[in-house]
Backbone:
């Protein structure tokens, strides 16, 4: 069967960039090539930016109700094609269909939220700021914005940004991850069909050449990226040098704190889905469990290891398991698997106990897939490499703390501050944790404290280099420039 070639989408047209190198897009479950993606040049990227710049004046002056009309149509297309999109994600990313469907649901939720822009973009008016003078704040679109997408959520993460940028009157260029470009290609076809003017939305496939062009081009007003902390730091520094806005979201090491009064059956079930969904390749996945007290530690270690053994590791598109609620597919690539294996070796050398070893897992019929089994370390101390490092795979580390204060100190002492949760029925414990944990997103009896689209998404410390978070009402401030108007009128003579 011929391998399909993906294309760029610029000025309302699909095209293959001239002279581009081509990269195989791999199904990580089977190792088979499912498509070829072009690595576009800076010239291709500049052409997309120019198209977006040319489309901006007319789009910015379009009334907001007319700007969101295509998004209503887009929402309908996503809803109607939910399963097709989910299967695309599973094929190129390896996550279960359950996780892929949830991802598409969240992308849809963001489109629907952005459809409220006639309310979200309203400014402020102060009548009588001074005698006979009124003051007003109006929120205006700025121009071209761009986004560098990650591999772990090819359908959802771009939609933390795209619908809000378009609804506020800006134009947009997105670079999908070269590892998982197929789903965004499909979503771009819906954006093409939903009635946007040519040039308002553009897609350029590629690697760091495209990303660097985004960060340095004078017509790009701001860049959003979700990736590792080193990548986020480079984007933030480069955009700052070029006087651009940026949202640079980096790595994570999300902690789950278990108190003695926690409902342990519910807790363990919740921790399994949190830690092993998407094979641990979520920026909100839990990867460190902190047990308060010796009894809790012993109980959690025994229960969690036993529950981890029962997680199904398989090709998520295998008809035998595709509708199972908890299936763990492969990690994204051989390179990612090699890194995780090195981290497991490092944990053993550091003296942690490898209570469950996921190395050497074989999935029949998928010998070329990048599979790892569930892996659990106990006797982990704060500061160990396996605790410091974002492993981004199905590896969990379990630590012990004597008190809640000590547990919070473990969370706060970490470089990353994306998310953390506490399991407790005690309101005092929960309130203390909510106020004192130095993370951007807090959960109480919730393993994945990722907020719904109406609320902002983002971390603290080395997990985010920006002061405006993704999605929801908060992101309107990223895509608009406040203009303050002070006015008065004298009476006619």
Residues:
């Amino acid at each position: 069967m011929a391998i399909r070639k993906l294309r760029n989408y610029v000025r309302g047209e699909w095209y293959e960039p001239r002279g581009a190198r081509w990269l195989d897009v791999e199904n990580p479950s089977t190792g088979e090539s499912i498509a070829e993606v072009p690595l576009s040049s800076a010239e291709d990227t500049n052409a997309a930016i120019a198209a977006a710049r040319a489309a901006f004046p007319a789009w910015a002056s379009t009334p907001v109700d007319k700007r969101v009309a295509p998004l209503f149509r887009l929402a309908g297309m996503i809803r109607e094609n939910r399963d097709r999109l989910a299967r695309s994600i599973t094929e190129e990313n390896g996550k279960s269909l359950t996780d892929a469907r949830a991802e598409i649901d969240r992308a849809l939720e963001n489109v629907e939220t952005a459809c409220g822009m006639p309310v979200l973009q309203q400014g402020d008016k102060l009548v009588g700021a001074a005698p006979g003078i009124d003051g007003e704040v109006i929120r205006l679109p700025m121009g071209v914005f761009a986004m560098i997408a990650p591999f772990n959520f090819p359908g959802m993460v771009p939609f933390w940004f795209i619908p809000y940028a378009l609804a506020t009157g800006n134009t947009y260029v997105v670079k999908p991850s070269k590892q998982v470009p197929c789903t965004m290609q499909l979503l771009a076809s819906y954006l093409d069909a939903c009635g946007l003017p040519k040039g308002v939305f553009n897609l350029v496939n590629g690697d760091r050449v495209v990303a660097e062009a985004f960060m340095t081009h004078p017509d790009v007003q701001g860049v959003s990226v979700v990736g590792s902390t080193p990548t986020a730091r480079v984007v933030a520094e480069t955009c700052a040098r070029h006087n651009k806005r940026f949202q640079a979201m980096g790595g994570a090491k999300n902690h789950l704190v278990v108190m003695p009064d926690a409902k342990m059956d519910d807790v363990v079930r919740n921790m399994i889905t949190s830690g092993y969904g998407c094979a641990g390749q979520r920026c909100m996945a839990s990867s460190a469990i902190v047990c308060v007290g010796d009894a809790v530690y012993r109980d959690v270690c025994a229960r969690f290891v036993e529950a981890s053994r029962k997680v199904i590791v398989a090709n998520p598109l295998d008809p035998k398991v595709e509708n199972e609620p908890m299936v763990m597919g492969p990690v994204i690539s051989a390179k990612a698997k090699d890194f995780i294996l090195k981290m497991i070796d490092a944990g053993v050398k550091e003296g942690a106990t490898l209570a469950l070893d996921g190395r050497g897992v074989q999935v029949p019929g998928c010998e070329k897939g990048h599979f790892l089994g569930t892996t659990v370390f106990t006797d982990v101390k704060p500061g160990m490499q396996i605790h410091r490092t974002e492993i981004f795979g199905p590896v969990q580390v379990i630590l012990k703390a004597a008190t809640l204060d000590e547990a919070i100190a473990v969370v706060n002492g970490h470089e990353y501050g994306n998310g953390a949760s506490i399991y407790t029925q005690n309101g005092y414990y929960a309130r203390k944790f909510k106020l004192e944990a130095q993370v951007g997103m807090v959960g109480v009896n919730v393993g994945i404290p990722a907020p719904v689209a109406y609320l902002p998404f983002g971390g603290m410390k080395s997990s985010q280099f920006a002061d405006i978070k993704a999605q929801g009402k908060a992101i309107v401030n990223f895509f608009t420039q406040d203009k303050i108007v002070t006015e008065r009128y004298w009476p006619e003579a």
Residues 4-250+463-485 form a domain with the Aldehyde Dehydrogenase; Chain A, domain 1 fold (CATH 3.40.605.10). The mean pLDDT is 97. The longest helix spans residues 42-60.
